[in-house]
Amino acid sequence: LKASVTAKDLAEVYTPTAAELALAFGTSRAEGARFGFLVLLKTFQRLGYFVLLGEVPQPILQHISSCLGVAPRPNDLLRYDESGTRRRHIPVTRKFLKVKPFDGQARTLVGAVVREAAQTKEDLADLINISIEELVRNRFELPGFTTLLKEARRGRSDVHRVFYRRVAQALGDGGRDHLDRILKVDDPAGRSPWNTIREFSG
Hints:
The chain starts with 6 loop residues before the first helix and ends with a helix. Helix content is 71%, strand content 0%. The model has no long low-confidence stretch (mean pLDDT 92). It is mainly alpha-helical. It has helices spanning 7-13, 18-27, 31-47, 58-68, 74-81, 84-97, 104-117, 124-137, 145-183, 193-201.
């Protein structure tokens, strides 16, 4: 979440709808809990994962609080983040948004998507972005970045190993030996035949 939020984003992204306000009032009787719920809901809609209220920029908090007509104190945010109320609000938010938690099924989906994409793409950022798009399309909550990074690296490595085996099998023993000789440094100057090939081809 950016610390600086435009008025347009506040109005279009972080303003609770009538249905969301009704859900907040139906979910919690305390105004602090209703405020926490709406912040949780609106930031999830923006990010695809749950954040702590203490991590949400002040302009967003102030805008949502003004929509509710409340003025929460800093301690209220901390209490909500550590409360059982927040834990109860998470499944309510998922149900309202029709989003599933990141689970084994989602991990399997990411693995399959990464391996398919790695057939033609090598950059980890591309693989991660494709994973995110597929998770969002299938209505899954997004996991932490580290999880996506590990899955991208694992899937790319699996695909590369298949490529390496295919190339090695196609070369045969003779071809592999020839490549080994090309890369071997015998020259007193520390050069290999590969250096010469690169100079002529460049």
